[in-house]
Design a protein that fits this description.
alpha/beta; Beta-Lactamase; eight-stranded mixed β-barrel; transmembrane; membrane; transmembrane helix
């Protein structure tokens, strides 16, 4: 009898274990599938004559297509009517989409919609018209979906840091110093926190992003001390899985920022940026008591006061040779080091400082006071977005051959720059822009548009021309820029080994002679 009972217990335990395993595997697989389908993009083609649309690169996307795109075989690469595709969008978006494809305009439409059973999912979407001919239009569709309970995690998400400083109540901040090389993935970073916070019923957080800083604001009235400690612990623990996105995590309270001025916040954050990389939380309250911070603050205020007089640029003349052997001289512009007293060993950290952004604005102002011929100046995209465009327009008037060479970091930053450029080119025709890239893929090629005059291939990317996939992408890029009348400049080019491979359009391809 006992042996029968024991056997029954063993069978029951085994069956329970198998059932739980199957459920866990199923739940994990379902969750993985949702994550894989929650964000992505595809290239589409519109046949304007027959008013239909289809996937252009179906083999690359069908595995992870979300259910809202499974329309009459659309996800299998079949043509569907534009009306069927547009059922997700508002009447306003439909009108704008029709207008763009009929007028053949390259532009981006931002939209959102709900989907799923009982509309429990919410999607942010972007429709970008990228190319066209007489009968067809090509574009890219981006999506980013989340559950509705994720949408209420953030009460506010903004870029105006003054709003945070002017909040008329006490609050605590969980902050991140973002790595600029991965700043184009910031939306994914935020989404990871949003998903986890939704599961833990964390709602009503204010979020702000300013340059390379991300702030999650917890108001005292909304979150008591115990809740704030719990949220801080969650952010600290969760962030360790995503250290590639940021270099520091820190905690501060409103009282830590003297008089709640942006300068006090900049000094504190710039000091944190220069500390050793760590996954552990840095507490502002502890930093403010240290002698090192007090010395740093004195130097910072001194440099800030003298910034205008310290700004100087250094020109370097180089030869630019086309693959058809035509030569021209250009000038590359560099800044003198104005941060010597900080003794920053890792020079790459300098461009991450808020003080560096101020210096860049003054540097542009200095350039606008001179006349410069055939001059390139390289600046990061997220920094360029904070340069006063009135100064940029003035430079175009005083130095019409000056090229703003924008180093690519983020699609979001480039989209913002494009919008500003197109608005200003209506008035100022002499504006010239380069786009420097240190990596290449289909999506990066898609952002190359007529407002760009030069594509600058960095040393890092030039060194990868021995890779077949890089060569293919470069050749695709060359075909596109040639059609648009854009020139390509290689910063470091192995002429002997690669000029024949890239020699199809020799007059539009240049390299800097060392």
């Amino acid at each position: 009898m006992n042996s029968i009972f024991i056997a029954f217990i063993l069978i029951f335990v085994l069956a329970t274990f198998v059932t739980l395993t199957i459920l866990i595997v199923y739940a994990t697989k379902k969750r993985l599938t949702f994550i894989q389908r929650s964000t992505g993009f595809f290239v589409f083609k519109v046949d304007t004559k027959q008013k239909r649309i289809k996937f252009e690169e179906i083999e690359n996307v069908t595995q992870y297509v979300p259910s809202f795109l499974k329309i009459n075989g659309f996800d299998k690469g079949e043509w569907i009517s534009i009306d069927d595709f547009e059922h997700l969008f508002s009447e306003e978006v439909k009108k704008e989409f029709h207008y763009l494809i009929n007028k053949r305009e390259t532009k981006t439409i931002d939209t959102s919609f709900q989907w799923g059973n009982k509309n429990q999912f919410y999607a942010d979407a972007k429709i970008e018209i990228t190319n066209f001919n007489e009968s067809d239009v090509w574009g890219t569709f981006y999506w980013n979906t989340h559950k509705l309970n994720e949408k209420i995690v953030f009460n506010k998400f903004g870029e105006n840091i003054d709003q945070m400083l002017n909040i008329n109540e006490n609050y605590e901040v969980v902050g991140f110093i973002l790595k600029t090389q991965n700043i184009n993935q910031i939306d994914n970073f935020i989404k990871l926190f949003k998903e986890g916070a939704a599961l833990k019923n964390i709602h009503g957080v204010d979020a702000y992003i300013h340059l390379n800083k991300l702030f999650f604001v917890l108001k005292y009235k909304q979150f008591n001390l115990a809740k704030r400690r719990k949220i801080l612990s969650y952010f600290a623990k969760a962030s360790k899985n995503y250290f590639k996105f940021f270099s520091r995590i820190f905690n501060l309270e409103k009282k830590d920022i003297n008089n709640y001025k942006i300068l006090d916040l900049e000094i504190l954050c710039d000091y944190i940026k220069l500390l050793n990389n760590t996954e552990e939380i840095i507490y502002a309250e502890d930093i403010l008591k240290t002698e090192n911070f007090k010395i740093f603050k004195e130097k910072y205020l001194k440099v800030t006061k003298e910034l205008d007089s310290r700004i100087q640029y250094v020109p370097k003349s180089v030869k630019l040779r086309a693959l058809n052997n035509n030569k021209t001289n250009i000038t590359l512009l560099f800044k003198k080091d104005i941060f010597e007293e900080f003794n920053i060993e890792d020079k790459s950290l300098i461009s991450s400082l808020d003080l560096y952004i101020k210096a860049q604005n003054l540097f542009y102002k200095k350039i606008s006071e001179d006349t410069l011929e055939k001059t390139f100046y390289t600046i990061d995209d997220y920094i360029f977005n904070y340069i006063d465009f009135k100064i940029i327009n003035k430079i175009a008037q005083t130095s019409p051959s000056f090229i703003n060479n924008i180093r690519f970091n983020s699609f979001k930053s480039i989209n913002r720059i494009e919008k500003k450029v197109l608005e200003n080119k209506v008035k100022e025709k002499n504006l010239l822009f380069g786009l420097e890239i240190n990596k290449i893929d289909d999506r990066i090629i898609s952002i190359i548009k007529p407002w760009i005059n030069f594509v600058f291939i960095s040393k890092e990317l030039s060194k990868q021309l021995n890779k077949p996939d890089i060569i293919l992408f470069i050749q695709t890029l060359i075909e596109k820029v040639n059609a648009l009348g854009i020139k390509i400049v290689f910063e470091n080019f192995d002429y002997k080994n690669y000029h024949k491979i890239l020699n199809k359009h020799p007059k539009n391809i240049y390299y800097i002679e060392e």
